[in-house]
Amino acid sequence: MGAGHVHVLYRESSSPVHRLPPEVKIAAMVLFTVAVVATPRAAYWAFGGYALLVAAVAALARVGPRWLLGRALIELPFVLFAFALPFFGTGERVDVAGLSLSVDGLHGAWNILAKGTLGVLASLLLAATTTTRDLIVGLDRLRCPQILTQIATFMLRYLDVLVGEARRMRVARMSRGDDPRFLWQLRGFAAGVGALFLRAFERGERVYLAMVSRGYTGRMPAVWQGAGAATAGQWAAAATVPAIAATIAAVALVLT
Amino acid sequence: MIGYVQQPPSLDVRGVRYAYPDGHVALHGVDLTVPRGDRVALLGPNGAGKTTLVLHLNGILTPTGGTVSVGGLTVSRERDTLAEIRRRVGIVFQDPDDQLFLPTVAEDVAFGPANLGLRGAELAARVDEALAAVGMAEHRDRAPHHLSFGQRRRVAVATVLAMRPEILVLDEPSSNLDPAARRELAEILRGLPVTLLMVTHDLPYAAELCDRSVILDAGRVVADAPTLELLSDERLLAEHRLELPYGFVPRPS
Amino acid sequence: MHISNGIIDGPVAAVFAALALAALTFCVLRGRRDLDDRLAPMAGLVAAFIFAVQMLNFPIFTAGVSGHLLGGALAALLVGPWVGALCVAVVLVVQALVFGDGGVAMLGLNITNMALLGTAAAYLLIALLLRVLPRTPTGLGVTAFVSALVSVVVASQGFVLQYWLGGTTDLGGNLAGLAGTMAGVHLLIGIGEGLITATTVVTVAKVRPDLVYALRALKPAVPAPAVPVAGGAR
């Protein structure tokens, strides 16, 4: 974590996946995820198919499995829930290593683990091959409400600046003998958060003043938004991933 | 300069008074005229009202009394006037991170002229022209936070140059710059064919760039004279909390 | 907590996505009323603030365990419910897309719980408590503590509701158990959230009370802002 957080996921490269316009990658990733979520959990082979698909895209994007799996660990806290299901699930139970587990719950845990992991891998591939700036451009081209992309643009621009300020304030606090351990750091931490808010808010006001001084009247001019938008060929190329995933999902739905 | 005499001055501030909503009076009738093509330094201690005055120049603050004219056009609340005033007055704020808010240098430089309605090739030409003027042309596609502080300040200058302003107003242009960046910026500013008002308490920088200086203190203009003359008056400087750096002797360059 | 893919079934996730979009549209309209054309830069900076604060992990005990602020109640107190919800939502969208936090297919659920339910519950309580409690730092602190704590628990119960509607594994009679477990865990998280939110808001209120939305909006006599409000052309 830290100031680099914003950039660490992007892997500089000129692979074919990197070169695809962001909007097609976002659309492909979301559709792929939806197909995965829609797949019946008992269709184990389907998840194998998805995993192969992810592996193929990763290879094409020159993103190594070690990096991908290492980063995927971030989902661990989010799937803790999955591990509770075998204990709380209803119906038929089996004994595994002396524990009485619900079969339905085990299926449920598998369902969450498989779908959660595939979803995280897909997002990681998107983040590894697309800069944050391009992600915003892509969202914009996908007709995401402009106010949201604008807020996101400002957020990403100033995140590093604020984290840097927070770090300097923390160093200054520690230099004056504040011991950032245990619960009594809470007051210092919260005072720092308060100071950070003041700085963020006041910077927001100054940024706005500087914008008004350059003729801003509440509408962001659309500059060069059209340039570099995806061609039909690029849409088609990226569509292969969700198309294959959708086919797998459809077959799985029919078979189970 | 004789050819310019007939033209309205780039900046004409007359009797500007301003009181904040809480009643605190920040400006007590300020007069200041900057002829076209001149470079003038606005000096004064912290809290003198320099920034408040600057915010009047493009109509962000409205004076409680007096008028501000830019190239003959008087600042008013009227929409089209205000838009034109903001084109004519290019303010470079102190912290370039406040000014550069878009993901790339080129987009940020394009923001001002795009607000003026420029698009396409015309807009791109403006951006290239402004970036070339500050020697940042090769950085047009970089992210502002990947630039050095000095480079960011130069881009900030470019963002207002791209609007082809009548007058460039710089708030503490030399602050936080290392000596080389400071010199580079001075060279760039000296080469710009534009009227310049520089708000600073960096007296050597004022001496280097501006023939004329104005001292503002407690909301009043207390001195308006050639820079070298002002800087040689130790008593005047001391009265208004201005000091030359140790060992600096003002002399004509 | 962020819900990851596969916990809730597709149709329920889609319904909540539509719900979240509609609610956010409403937040944009009300946010514009609060901030006018300052909405984009101000909300952007506040979102950056929330994101930055979430990144500042603080160790709870000397070993290992660390926590971070969720910030929904804090945002509601400082910038109001509409802009606050909008900011938290943008943070969630970026986290899902850029960092893979929480499943993309579950984005609507996560926004509903953390940005909408959490902020709404917090602000309702704030509006109530600030009227009842004395206008002192203690009163503000207690308001902030309680509203932050409750907002975290309410957000967790949003998940329980969604699970009841479209959970992928039938828990039978254990749904109440799930609700209890979630409430218990989030009560603990909420205590930390409440303490930090309270201290933060009291700190800000001491320096710039005019910046605390809740104090401004819920008190008729508005003190003049110390910073000039810029008048744009309109």
TrEMBL record, chain A:
One GO-annotated biological process of the protein: cobalt ion transport
Membrane topology, as annotated: Multi-pass membrane protein
Record Pfam families: CbiQ
InterPro entries assigned: ABC/ECF_trnsptr_transmembrane (IPR003339), ECF_CbiQ (IPR012809), ECF_transporter_component (IPR051611)
Positions of transmembrane segments: 42-61, 68-88, 108-128, 182-201, 235-255
Subcellular location: Cell membrane
A cellular-component GO term for this protein: ATP-binding cassette (ABC) transporter complex
Keywords associated with the record: Cell membrane, Membrane, Transmembrane, Transmembrane helix
Matches recorded under NCBIfam families: ECF_T_CbiQ (TIGR02454)
PANTHER family: SLL0384 PROTEIN (PTHR34857)
Protein name: Cobalt/nickel transport system permease protein
Organism: Micromonospora chaiyaphumensis
TrEMBL record, chain B:
Occurrences of domain ABC transporter (ranges): 11-243
Gene3D superfamilies: P-loop containing nucleotide triphosphate hydrolases
Classification via InterPro entries: AAA+_ATPase, ABC_transporter-like_ATP-bd, ABC_transporter-like_CS, ABC_transpr_CbiO/EcfA_su, Co_trans_ATP-bd, ECF_ABC_transporter_ATP-bd, P-loop_NTPase
Source species, domain of life: Bacteria
SMART domains for the chain: AAA
Signal peptide: none
Compartments in which it is found: Cell membrane
Keyword Secreted among UniProt keywords: no
Single biological process term from Gene Ontology: cobalt ion transport
One GO MF term: ATP binding
Main location: membrane
Membrane topology term: Peripheral membrane protein
Entry keyword set: ATP-binding, Cell membrane, Membrane, Nucleotide-binding, Translocase, Transport
Function: Probably part of an ABC transporter complex. Responsible for energy coupling to the transport system. Part of an ABC transporter complex. Responsible for energy coupling to the transport system.
PANTHER family, sorted: ENERGY-COUPLING FACTOR TRANSPORTER ATP-BINDING PROTEIN ECFA1, HEAVY METAL TRANSPORTER
UniProt record similarity statement: Belongs to the ABC transporter superfamily.
UniProt protein name: ABC transporter ATP-binding protein
Automatic annotation (TrEMBL), chain C:
Gene Ontology annotations for the cellular component aspect, listed alphabetically: plasma membrane
Keyword field: Cell membrane, Membrane, Transmembrane, Transmembrane helix, Transport
InterPro entries tied to this protein: CbiM/NikMN
Compartments in which it is found: Cell membrane
Protein name according to UniProt: Cobalt/nickel transport system permease protein
Record lineage: Bacteria, Bacillati, Actinomycetota, Actinomycetes, Micromonosporales
Entry membrane topology: Multi-pass membrane protein
Transmembrane region(s): 12-31, 43-61, 73-99, 111-130, 142-165, 185-205
